[in-house]
UniProtKB/TrEMBL annotation:
Name this polypeptide is given: Glutamyl-Q tRNA(Asp) synthetase
Glutamyl/glutaminyl-tRNA synthetase class Ib catalytic domain sequence ranges: 7-272
Keyword set includes RNA-binding: no
Pfam family of the protein (one): tRNA-synt_1c
Protein family per UniProt: Belongs to the class-I aminoacyl-tRNA synthetase family.
GO annotations of cellular component type: cytosol
Length: 281
C-alpha cells in the first residue's frame, strides 16, 4: 500500500489557539504512528476575513511547536479555477442551481435546522423556472449556487465511510452518511466562487489524503463531503474525529470568542511543552 497522507488545514482568519494546537498535535501524532506524510493546507477562500499575516503566523506557530510538513503548502486562494471546474461538472450533471434568497428570507422560511443549528434551507429557488433563473442572473441579482441534495442522493444510493479511533489500527467503524440532513448546501457562495465543502473535498483528493483527522465539530459535515466525493468521482479517505477543547462557557474554543492565541501564551512565557501538556499530550 502506498504511504499514508495526512493534512492540517487551518483557516487564516485569526491566530491559532489551543484548540488548533490540539488538532495539529493529533494530526502529527497520527502521521508518525502511520509512518505517513503530512501536508499543510491554508484554507483561505474567505477573501474578506483571511489575511496573509495570519498565514505567516500559522507557519511560525507550527514551527514553534516543533512541527514540520512536506512541501508544497497548498493555498486555496490560488485554486479558485479548480473549484469552479468541479462546480461546473456538478452543474452539467444538473445538480447545481442558482439561489437568490437572502439570509433573512431563509430564516423566515426555514424548515427546522441543520446539524450545526443553522436554518435549514427550504428549497425555495429549486422551484424557479429556467426563464426566472435566466432573468435574475441577467439582472445581476446576488446569487449563490446550491447542490440539489435530494437529486444527488437519488443518484448515489447508500453512502458509507470508515472511521477509526485514536489508536488508528483498530478495525474501522462503518458509518452511513446522511447528507440530506443538511438540505441543499451552498457550493458557490455570494462572496467567493466556492465554499468550504467544495474546496475541502477537491483538495483532499488533489493532495492524495488517505487519513483525515479533524475535530468532532466537523463530524456531521463529513456526510456532505462523502456525497461530493461520490458525485465527483474522488476517493473517500479514512476519517478520525478528535475530541474538542472546551472553553469556560462549555462551548468549543473559537477565535471569534477571543480564546487566547498561541502567540499570546508564548508572550506570557509558555513553552511548546506547556502547550502540549495543556491540551493533554
Ligand atoms: N479549515 C477548517 C478549519 O479551520 C478545517 C478543515 C477540515 O478539517 O476539514 O476549521
Amino acid at each position: 500500500m502506498s504511504r499514508p497522507i495526512l493534512r492540517f488545514a487551518p483557516s487564516p482568519n485569526g491566530y491559532l489557539h489551543l484548540g488548533h494546537a490540539l488538532s495539529a498535535l493529533v494530526t502529527w501524532k497520527a502521521t508518525a504512528m502511520l509512518d505517513g506524510t503530512v501536508y499543510l493546507r491554508i484554507e483561505d477562500i474567505d477573501i474578506q476575513r483571511c489575511k496573509p499575516e495570519f498565514t505567516q503566523a500559522i507557519v511560525e506557530d507550527l514551527e514553534w511547536l516543533g512541527l514540520s510538513w512536506a512541501e508544497p503548502v497548498l493555498l486555496q486562494s490560488e485554486r479558485f479555477d479548480i473549484y469552479a471546474e468541479a462546480a461546473n461538472r456538478l452543474r452539467q450533471a444538473d445538480l447545481l442551481y442558482p439561489c437568490f434568497c437572502s439570509r433573512a428570507e431563509i430564516a423566515a422560511a426555514a424548515q427546522g435546522s441543520d446539524p450545526d443549528g443553522a436554518p435549514l434551507y427550504p428549497g425555495t429557488c429549486r422551484h424557479l423556472s429556467n426563464a426566472e433563473r435566466i432573468e435574475r442572473l441577467e439582472r445581476g441579482d446576488p446569487v449563490q449556487f446550491r447542490l440539489d441534495t435530494g437529486k444527488a442522493r437519488d443518484r448515489t444510493g447508500m453512502l458509507t465511510y470508515s472511521v477509526i479511533g485514536p489508536t488508528l489500527n483498530d478495525r474501522p467503524q462503518i458509518r452511513y452518511a446522511r447528507p440530506e440532513r443538511w438540505g441543499d448546501v451552498v457550493l458557490q457562495r455570494k462572496d467567493t466562487p466556492t465554499s468550504y465543502h467544495l474546496s475541502v473535498v477537491v483538495d483532499d483528493a488533489a493532495q492524495g489524503v488517505t487519513h483525515l483527522t479533524r475535530g468532532r465539530d466537523l463530524e456531521a459535515a463529513t456526510d456532505i463531503h462523502v456525497l461530493l466525493q461520490m458525485l465527483l468521482g474522488l476517493p473517500t479517505p479514512i476519517y478520525h474525529f478528535h475530541r474538542l477543547l472546551l472553553g469556560d462557557d462549555g462551548g468549543k474554543l473559537a477565535k471569534s470568542k477571543g480564546s487566547q492565541s498561541l502567540r499570546d501564551l508564548r508572550a506570557q512565557g509558555w513553552t511548546p511543552d506547556d502547550v502540549r501538556r495543556a491540551v493533554g499530550f
